[in-house]
Amino acid sequence: MTIGILAALREEAAHLLEDLEPGGRRTQIALRDYTAGTIHGHDCVIVLARVGKVAAATTATALIERFGADRLIFTGVAGGVAPGLRIGDIVIADALVQHDLDARPFFRRHEIPLLGTSHCATDAGLTDRLEAAARAFLDGPMRQRISPEVCERFGLDRPRVHRGLIASGDQFIGSAAGVAALREALPDALAVEMEGAAVAQVCHEYGIPFAVMRTVSDTADDQAHQDFPAFLVEVASHYAHGILQCLFQAGIPPAGAIERHAGTPPDAPGGWTLAT
Ligand code: ADE
Asked: Can you give the pTM of this predicted structure?
């Protein structure tokens, strides 16, 4: 089993690289450094995915095709969309959708053309483990890694773990109108970011189990940009690193123990007909 880890943040990737046992091998492909090595006995390849759906899809494809990754995990930050989500909460994806994909009138809004679906489900077994790791992190290591002063500055108050739908698109949502439009289009969405659904589509098509975790860095409204860079460095990178440490310490079952979901044959659903 080889686990591909796509980090959205440079600081996150840097922390993870520190955990690699000696002997990691670095390969550069298309402006990205892929580092292969072992963490707690798990073969891993760690890469900074960069920003946006194209960046995420090409990185995921390289992990699968060039490094034989047969599990993918994506970590990063997201804007909270559902009421009640607070900065510092964690969202674990059950499914992902591209909120900016719209090929109407030939396909329904958000439907991935010729794939017959709009939502790509994450792997239930891997997602359960990631959720358990996120809860374990908040129950313990979080307070050791993030000082009370930082918690107070960013208003982190008893952060919670949420599980559900994440929406992705090539857009930073940073206005009340933007978040309202997203809520109207996708009432179930918990959070919004710019990569997860692209990785989800690649994994769906290859039949590769994957999971996505996001730290809520903002609430996608007019204050979304405030302190964003500081939050990435002082909070989000520690969350991602700490949660993956909890995940690796608990162990990830070998291939076959996690149920795979086969990709839908690309030509199974209808073609370019008008959607009803
Ligand atoms: N990632 C973090 N916050 C985001 C937002 N508000 N919109 C899109 N991607 C994000």
From this structure: 0.93
